[in-house]
Amino acid sequence: DVIDVRGLVEEGLFTYDPGFVSTAACESQITYIDGANGVLLHRGYPIEQLAEKSDYLEVCYLLIHGELPTAEQAEEFRSTVKNHTMIHEQLRNFFNGFRRDAHPMAIMCGVVGALSAFYHDTMDFSDEHHREIAAFRLMAKMPTLAAMCYKYSTGQPFMYPRNDLDYAGNFLHMMFGTPCEPYQVNPVVAKAMDRIFVLHADHEQNASTSTVRLAGSSGANPFACIASGIAALWGPAHGGANEAVLNMLLEIGDESRIPEFIQRAKDKSDPFRLMGFGHRVYKNFDPRAKVMKQTCDDVLKELGCENDPLFRIARELERIALEDPYFVEKKLYPNVDFYSGIILRAVGIPVSMFTVIFAMARTIGWFSHWHEMVSSSYRIGRPRQLYTGHTARDYPSK
Ligand code: ACO
Fold it and tell me: Where is the active site (predicted)?
């Protein structure tokens, strides 16, 4: 049941909802989640079907435009994205200002926000055409910037994008290619990367998307809004979970130690949680996790690491947790990030880049929500508070 409080506010109604557990902040036509039944739809299409039949750029088109593209529209869309993959040469200088060991998410917060310093035309986004260009710039430049973060950390030269490759293949090339040795794209690996992008593309009003909407509600430009989403995504309770999962699996180290970690997760005096378990909305299963697990199987088989000890620990951890009354009663199931880290590690992507890859993929979701909001009438977001401080008091006499 939905109670619309808009008209009641004037009469003095005030709701208190920490964590926005039951408060809708907007109407949206982009993504639907039925947490009780493990359903995720983008514009009405089930995520399982999109993961099987579409690639990431088609899903981007769907999220922005509301319909799947025809073959001709998809071709035009892909080629326009490719026109925007380069970044301004001066933006390269930003990287030199960071320490080599800076976390790539710290760099991403800075360089994506800095895009607004290069595209003044997008400052006036009242025009639909300018919004569209901003979308292309973001989709196209995020992989370039993400790969540059990695190259900067390893001291290798930045690689220019290759527009003869598809979206995922080009990203892998910019990550792993060098001027001396071109990267040979493995189609199974590229397909898995593309699927990771599809599964992370949007997830309605999560913390980072809500942050983007809130920033956008003040009229901030799209690049600044996306940078705010990147900052919100970074935390381990949200996008940082994929990094935290892998670190946890490495810390467990051996299947024999799983019960010890399960026990710690149940102990309320220990802040430890099983990373990659639980979700605010999914209380049955996360449909993305199922697809991710299958993709994980495919990639490990292709790369000949089916017996990867971390994958064995992950599978056993999942099995034990799903039989444990604590996790069953609290409806804690593996979420999308439980298996994504194992795939990324097998592909050779360092742990510190995991959340950056999530940010790349989610950029289209953030953009679509911002675009939906600014395309109709909207009010500045202004949450209220329940004040629990001092009542008014006089300044003490000296
Ligand atoms: N391990 C152990 N216990 C847990 C876990 C976990 N992973 N997750 C929740 N719980 C317990 C809590 O301790 C709490 O117990 P209590 O009722 O006895 O106090 C109960 O389950 C409810 O937990 P909340 O934190 O209130 O649930 P909330 O909906 O606020 O949080 C969240 C959801 C943040 C995802 C949480 O499950 C969590 O921290 N999981 C681990 C981090 C993670 O994997 N995040 C990725 C989310 S998916 C994404 O962003 C793409």
Answer: 279, 337
- ipTM value: 0.94
- Name residues contacting ligand 1 (CB within 6 A): 19, 237-239, 241, 265, 273-280, 330, 332, 335-337
User: Can you tell me the distance from the alpha carbon of 142 to that of 227, in angstroms, rounded to the nearest whole number?
Assistant: 11
pTM across the whole model: 0.92
Ligand 1 centroid – CA 280 distance (Å):
7
pLDDT in tens, 285-331: 899 999 999 999 899 999 988 888 888 999 899 999 999 999 999 99
List the catalytic residue out of 279, 286, 369, 371: 279
Q: At 16, is the pLDDT very low, low, confident or very high (cuts 50, 70, 90)?
A: very high
Specify the residue with its C-alpha closest to ligand 1, atom 24: 280
Is 120 part of the annotated catalytic residue set? no
Ligand 1 atom 35 nearest Cα: 279
Mutate which of 211, 332, 366 to test ligand 1's pocket (most atoms within 8 Å of Cβ)? 332
- The whole-number pLDDT of residue 127 equals 85
Q: Which of 173, 324, 337, 369 is catalytic?
A: 337
**Distance (Å) of CA 70 to CA 11, 48, 61, 139:** 50, 20, 10, 19
- pLDDT tens digits, one per residue of 158-205: 999 999 999 999 999 999 999 998 899 999 999 999 999 999 999 999
The tokens describing 39, both together, are: 């359903």
Q: What is the mean pLDDT of residues 102-113?
A: 96
Atom of ligand 1 nearest to the CA of 265: 2
Tens of pLDDT, residue by residue over 65-92, are 999 999 999 999 999 999 999 999 999 9
User: Whose CA is closest to atom 31 on ligand 1?
Assistant: 280
